[in-house]
Specification:
The protein is an alpha+beta fold and 428 residues long. It has two domains: 99 residues; 286 residues, Aminoglycoside 3'-phosphotransferase, Chain: A, domain 2 (Alpha-Beta Complex), CATH 3.90.1200. It contains 18 helices and ten strands. The strands form three sheets. Strands 1-2-3-5-4 form a five-stranded antiparallel β-sheet, sandwiched between helices. Strand 8 and strand 9 form a beta hairpin. Helix 4 runs parallel beside helix 12 and helix 11 crosses helix 14. The protein is globular and about 80 Å long.
């Protein structure tokens, strides 16, 4: 693909100068190609860009090849373009990168990719793959080393929110909250009755689908009384997500990522051990307690047995890392998010993780042939996400042991703990 029509020569020059920190550079050649990988993302057209430059900060000048990740509003199909522009996710990420993240304090470790350029339809970031970062396979269940390094990084990202708010409160001599100053960047996109309705249709169809597949679960299917109780309560239980996604009136809120499944997390390794993390795709951020991100990450990317064995250690690691980062900026965790409050919030927002896992996994854990059939064409993509998907889920459930296992894990925990066990979330 030619670079023409994506960015102008002067815009590419801005990208290069921002990356290198100098204007003493000649841009020689720009090559734009597709981004490798399965299921790269529907809410943007993703490209890898290679730029050959000549840097004149030394004599003789030095030739370099720079690599960038480019995301833009897709123009491959009018239906695709309309979906992405109308749902608001792309605009939200552009706004965060250009108006807010660049005001956040510099933290002890990076938590996201460097951003070099934004305009309303395009953003250019550092290419994490060139920096030796990579995804884990989307079906993978993460082990403790992956979760541990992620928790440290997530804590630093959340700390940036707290530090920014506290610094702004001091400067303005009044309480500062990000959601009040930046309502256009922090509004709820996935679980809200307001807005364009794109994601509301998706959620409603998820509720319909999950109600339709409960009788696939062996432990429930032959018990009419249990099935009746599940049928009466499942929809209301799932719709708790709309309250759980709002800013809390009780717990401290931060700018949460909101979509922490493995496709939005990159790891870098040394001797096959994960040592660094970068979080990407800030399109559905929300302003709510850190526990929503933590519980979503754990339920989306680990199994129930793993969580029961390791959750306490990971929560302590997160909180310790948060305390360390805050301390480096002159703040104490006991004043901003004490352990007792944090732990209580995790108990409350465990429900958030359970619900989002069931809603996500029946789609994004589908075997590849189902995704190719239903997610590639824009018309079919929107139809598939807007209708009851039980017929597709039932076939994948029968065919694929891993898929069936993930959904069984999600559904039995959700139902046992939130319906048959009757857990309350009244302390929001």
């Amino acid at each position: 693909m030619s670079s023409e029509g994506i960015l102008s020569p002067s815009e590419w020059r801005t990208v290069v100068e921002t990356c290198l920190g100098t204007s003493q550079v000649d841009v020689l050649k720009i090559s734009v190609g597709p981004l490798a990988g399965e299921f790269g993302g529907f809410l943007g057209d993703h490209r890898q860009v290679k730029v050959k430059v000549l840097v004149h900060t030394s004599k003789p000048p030095i030739g370099k090849e720079l690599a960038f990740f480019l995301k833009r509003i897709p123009d491959d199909h009018p239906k695709h373009t309309e979906f992405v522009t109308s749902c608001g996710a792309f605009n939200k990420e552009i706004g965060l990168l250009s108006k807010l993240f660049n005001r956040f304090p510099r933290t002890s470790i990076p938590w996201g990719p460097e951003c070099y350029f934004t305009r309303p339809d395009t953003l250019v970031l550092e290419d994490l793959i060139e920096q030796q970062f990579r995804h884990v396979p989307r079906h993978a269940l993460l082990d403790y080393p992956h979760c541990a390094v992620f928790m440290k990084t997530l804590a630093v990202y959340h700390a940036a929110t707290l530090i920014f708010e506290e610094n702004q409160s001091k400067s303005n001599n009044e309480k500062f909250k990000i959601n009040e100053k930046y309502p256009d960047l922090t509004y709820e996109l996935l679980f809200a009755y307001e807005g364009t309705g794109k994601f509301l249709h998706l959620f409603k169809s998820s509720v319909d689908t999950l109600n339709s597949i409960i009788d696939l679960v062996p432990k429930y299917k032959d018990n009419e009384n249990v099935l009746r109780k599940i049928s009466e309560k499942l929809s209301d239980t799932l719709y708790q997500q709309f309250e759980l996604s709002k800013p809390s009136k009780k717990f401290r809120n931060v700018l949460c990522h909101g979509d922490l499944w493995v496709n939005n997390v990159f790891f870098r390794y040394q001797d096959d051990v994960p040592v660094e993390v970068r979080i990407v795709d800030f399109q559905v951020v929300r302003y709510c307690p850190p526990a929503t991100d933590i519980m979503a990450f754990l339920h989306l990317n680990t199994g129930r047995e793993f969580r029961e064995a390791n959750e306490e250690k990971l929560l302590l690691l997160y909180h310790t890392s948060l305390a360390e980062e805050l301390s480096k900026h002159g703040y104490q965790v006991d004043q901003l998010l004490p352990w007792s409050e944090f732990k209580e919030s995790c108990e409350v927002y465990r429900a958030f993780g359970r619900i989002i896992a069931a809603c996500y996994h029946h789609v994004n854990m589908l075997p590849k042939r189902f995704l190719d059939e239903h997610m590639e064409d824009p018309y079919e993509h929107e139809r598939f996400l807007s209708e009851n998907r039980a017929h597709v889920v039932a076939v994948a459930w029968e065919e694929n042991d891993h898929y069936r296992g993930r959904l069984l894990d999600d559904l039995t925990e959700l139902i046992d703990c939130m319906i048959l066990g009757v857990e309350s979330n009244s302390s929001l």
